[in-house]
Specification:
single chain; about 100 residues; mainly alpha; two-stranded antiparallel ribbon; 3 helices
Length: about 100
């Protein structure tokens, strides 16, 4: 049997950026699904997806500029930026230093 240790909390989801905002929206019954905006969806059957809301960081949107410089953002895929942001988001609840 493996043991799991939770060392910090962080969340980037289609509902919001951050644990508190995501949890509030879950309790309100909100959905993270919406029309596809990342690419032209004419050629695909489905027109809906659960995309992370990108913006200036207000109202639960994800602002990559808080975590990585623009020049560095162009070098990596979105999932890398999301992962790096979780290091910063989880910092207040972490119990060890990185």
């Amino acid at each position: 049997m493996r043991r799991v240790v939770v060392t910090g909390l962080g969340m980037v989801s289609p509902l919001a950026d951050g644990v508190e905002a995501t949890w509030e929206r879950l309790l309100e019954g909100q959905s993270g699904a919406g029309p596809i905006t990342k690419f032209d969806s004419k050629e695909v059957v489905t027109k809906y997806a659960c995309e992370v809301p990108v913006g200036d960081g207000s109202n639960g949107t994800f602002d990559a500029n808080l975590y990585l410089e623009k020049k560095e953002q162009r070098k990596v895929d979105d999932f890398i930026i999301f992962g790096l942001s979780l290091i910063h988001i989880s910092e207040p609840t972490r119990r060890y230093a990185i």
